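Q: Could you write out the predicted structure for this multi-component system? I'm mainly interested in how the pieces pack against one another.
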Amino acid sequence: MKRRDFLKSTSALMGGTILYATGIPAMAQAEPVSGGTLIWGHSETTQNLDMHQTGTASTGRVLQNVHDSIVTVDKDLNVIPNLAESFEISADGLVYTFKLRPGVVFHNGQKMTSADVKFSFERCKDPATGAVNFEVFNSVASIDTPDDLTVVITLGQVNAPFLSRLAENGAGVIMPTGTGDVQGTTPIGCGPFKFVRREFGNEVELARFDDYWGGPAYLDKIIAREITEPTVRLTGLRTGELHMINDIPADRIAEIEGDDKFQVVSWFPLNWDFVNFNHDFEPFKNPKVREAFDYMIDKEALLEGALWGQGAVTASPSYPTSASYNHDLKQRPQDFEKAKALLAEAGYGEGELSVVFKATTNYPYHIEAAQIMLEWFRMAGVDATIEQLTWSDWLSQCWVDKDFQITMMNFFTLWEPDFLYYSLWNTEGAFNYRKISNAKVDELTAKARVTVDPQARADIYKQVQTVVHDETLDVILWFRNGTIGAQTGVMGLDTIVHPNGSNLNFHKVWLQS
Amino acid sequence: MLRRLIGSVIVMWAVATLVFFMLRFVPGDPVAAMLADAGGPDEIAAMKRQLGLDRSLFVQYAIWFQNMLHGDLGASIYGSRAAVTDVLAEAIPRTLSLSLLAFVIALIIAVPAGILSATRRNSATDTTVSLLAFLGLSMPDFWLAILLIIVFAANLQWLPAIGYAPLADGLWPWLSHLILPAVAIGTAFSAIIARMIRSSLLEVLKSDYMRTARAKGLTPWMIMFGHALPNAMIPVITVIGIAFALLISGAVVVENVFAIKGLGRVLIEGILNRDYPVVQGAVLVVSAIFVFSNLIVDLLYGVIDPRIRLN
């Protein structure tokens, strides 16, 4: 069976799980040893280190080891206890009671109490903090601390996604009281590793925290060297200067897999991609034109061409194993005749429509995908050109100024559907850079927020996906695999990937002497 | 001398001012780059107010210029408000170490090669040196860098391929991290100097006082190092001063290949992220290096040839 076929057949079953691992020697049998410094070639640079203020995947990936959240998720994305030993939700869905784990110590020696939880959540909620996830606490009426280990949060109105949003470090992280000012430069949490130093744009150093409530980690130190150039990362792995690297370029995976000095860990999914239309651009106001473009794209061929098959196509951006994933949706097949007919219906004959595709060089596979799609657009009689933008140019033109006709982007695989569907497709959504305004989607995403019954909520999100698909608000392409390449002496890599697919957790990783 | 110094400062001011305004006319938005997928338009507007980027260009310039005179180059927009002076203080020793080592390597190759090909003009040695010089000149430094990595780091595993170790870690760790990038940059530089030494020496060797020197019975060694070379060095030093630009621009590219966070990488990342204060600071330092290396060249003239004295 070809790997691609294997991926396809398993794609519906897996979520955030290790897809395959090659070259891992007898991992289960070996007895972990403590010690050593792991040098990690990190694919991106970290930015603002304040967990409340940062929203970038790169920073979250590192801070995952410094911070812990009040609750977390298991690999099936069920919310489970973490810093809270247990939690209870009242029948009306308005009162959340958390019992904290005793004996949790922060890196500064402070013991965690309910006051720290109150401090952290109020800091996140305060507009002056500039927290990315402040809206999670919008419906919070009061936070009470009846004793040192009990936190009672009362909501003014039902907010169904509340608990699962607290399972992310962004909103659910607990920081020691009074450390707000230093978090941006020297983050303090209660995770398995302490922050030691960061040389901006070069490296971050973490050291084991011996008093970690979950038991000390094995590694003495982690040095995350920020090497954004993929070939340089691969060189570092080859010369043995790096123990592991994340994000191997898709076209080089086979080469690393074929070398018995290295192991490759791959998981599904890392993130998902979609093609975006600017709904303010005259031709794209007509759903027929958007549908026509969908018919021009062969998603399987594009996945193979741009990503070397390292992923699986999907018509839904919901987390593959989540209850809200709509399995009834099928991607439209490539059909140029249908595309031409739809364009003609919309009043655009052969060669009468021209579009500019803006793609960012920050994701080289976006450039390759755009180039392939351009050929297809031309074959359907559309005059198309590509404009390559650096990351900051893409952000400023497409994200902020919404000045584009057609583009593509990827997003974290968010397991919390409110975060995903409200942010991206609601007219008011913070991530609605396509100027989408769809009454049905607005109504459904608002309704889901106050629907407590999980099944009913999941059904609403399935309807949202149907609207997104039927009216081609965007073209959902695929989930992309995540990859790590490492020396064979790096052990415990089967535990490193957080269920969100992006964060890396080094607590159980160790080095063979 | 004072006039030269004042001139140098004016040049640096002009460069800094030019860069300040050019950066702001380039499309792109530093705040958008920083907030990435984390912020909506409201956050971006608020952040711009906080950073003073909503004020008029000239007010921004006046504030920046005033702070610069006080030694404050501002804070990185993209990199959690790290002071630009700190970013530069980390980067400058790396680029200077790299450039100086590249310079030394270039001289070690160029001086003997230039002398050899000048004294054995039109011989097989001369042709070989000229050929190698052309090869060195036409080889892009990043390509040579990759070749060096493949051979010496990946296959032979003699030298590290990425990163930088400060001198405080020991002489060998420092040197070993710099050898490959320094050779990659120094090669083209040595080719230029070797060609220059050759032509300049040929010129000198034809002159009358060379004949006089030989006539009074000096050894060829003394003729070369006592008379010919010092006189041939004047145009060579001029070229070295100008070509120092080559070392710095070479460092920009080669630092990326070897993942060394020097001035070059700071500059490139700053430009890509529209991190205005960082780019302004880095350009200021690079222009200072240019201006002062040329000043040093001018002073060296006087040392080598007392007839040329600055007034």
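A: Regarding packing and overall arrangement: Chain B has a mean pLDDT of 83.
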